[in-house]
Write a structure and sequence with these properties.
By secondary structure, the protein is α/β, with parallel strands linked by helices. 43% of the residues lie in helices and 16% in strands. The protein binds nicotinamide-adenine-dinucleotide. The site of nicotinamide-adenine-dinucleotide (NAD) has 25 residues, from helix 10.
């Protein structure tokens, strides 16, 4: 193995500690305590696990979080009504509708109803547009976590070839925009891309967010590249990423493990966004 491990777990612990002390300072200075409302619709076990992990992280950092668990057959208007209530509550600063949602609910409609100031996922249209025009406010958690991991390597993206596999609104699109803003030359790959390996083989920075186990193998990677594996796939009860770790780590310069890479960073960035959102809401309320 030649690659250095990008330890997301350790870096996330550091960011969580920072968020905890920022939250404590807000409580001390203004008597407010940043809080998250998570919305879980249905009984998808992976979603329930993510929501629980997020709640635990908030608990560890001394931040409040409430989980609203709705049944799988909840009609969309009921979810939107809950969001309207949460938008109006001064003691809730972040709203997190967990995906995936049951088929009667359109996730984009849900995100469009979250107050942009409380959109700590950064997935609503206002925060997405802010990101696209280069004036980011609440940046989506997973892409923000990926950029922090990249920063940790000390590799400056300026002028580098960055290849992103995946174009989802949650990961692929925003991370490509962030890499572009960091002055990388960005290539976006997706299911219609021809000859994936010809693109990945040029990448100094490779972000893989396809949701396909072992899509990228060592022979597709440029020696010394930074490889960030976002994928979470369950194979025979084991978690694996989108990158074949044994062959990729023999070629890459840096690589994230799965689990313990991007996953914990996503949660840490959610904490950070919630504290940032709480502080912004406090100042906005004082200036009305
Ligand atoms: P998605 O299914 O919405 O999008 C997958 C993207 O990958 C699509 O744009 C598709 O075009 C592309 N793709 C799929 N197969 C491909 C192939 N063979 N070649 C090229 N492109 C291909 O998924 P998503 O929500 O972006 O998530 C991607 C993966 O990341 C999943 O495994 C998901 O579980 C994981 N994920 C992890 C975190 C985390 O915190 N670690 C957060 C979000 C998503």
């Amino acid at each position: 193995m030649t690659a250095r491990i990008l330890d997301g777990k350790a870096l996330a612990a550091q960011i969580e500690a920072e968020a905890a002390s920022q939250a404590a300072a807000l409580t001390q200075r203004y008597g407010m305590s940043p809080a998250l409302a998570a919305i879980l619709v249905g009984d998808d076990p992976a979603s329930a696990l993510y929501v629980r992990r997020k709640a635990e992280a908030f608990g560890r950092a001394g931040l409040r979080s409430e989980t609203f668990h709705l049944s799988a057959d909840t009609p969309e208007p009921e979810v939107l009504a809950l969001i309207a209530d949460l938008n109006a509550r001064a003691d809730i600063h972040g709203i997190l509708p967990q995906q995936p949602m049951p088929p009667q609910i359109t996730p984009r409609t849900v995100f469009e109803h979250v107050d942009p100031a409380k959109d700590v996922d950064g997935l609503g249209p206002i925060n997405m547009a802010a990101l696209l025009v280069g004036r980011p406010r609440l940046v989506p958690n997973t892409p923000a976590g990926i950029m922090r991991l990249l920063q940790h390597t000390g590799v400056d993206p300026t002028g580098k070839e960055a290849v992103v596999i995946g174009r989802s609104v949650i990961v692929g699109r925003p991370v490509a925009v962030l890499l572009l803003q960091a002055n990388a030359t960005v290539t976006w790959c997706h299911t219609k891309t021809r000859d994936l390996a010809s693109h990945t083989g040029r990448a100094d920075i490779l972000v893989v967010a396809a949701g396909k186990a072992r899509l990228v193998t060592g022979s597709m990677i440029k020696p010394g590249a930074v490889v960030i594996d976002v994928g979470i796939n369950r194979i025979e009860g084991k978690l694996v990423g989108d990158v074949d770790f044994p062959s990729a780590s023999a070629v890459a310069g840096w690589i994230t493990p799965v689990p313990g890479g991007v996953g914990p960073m996503t949660i840490a960035m959610l904490l950070k966004n919630t504290v940032q959102a709480a502080e912004a809401q406090f100042h906005a309320a004082r200036h009305v």
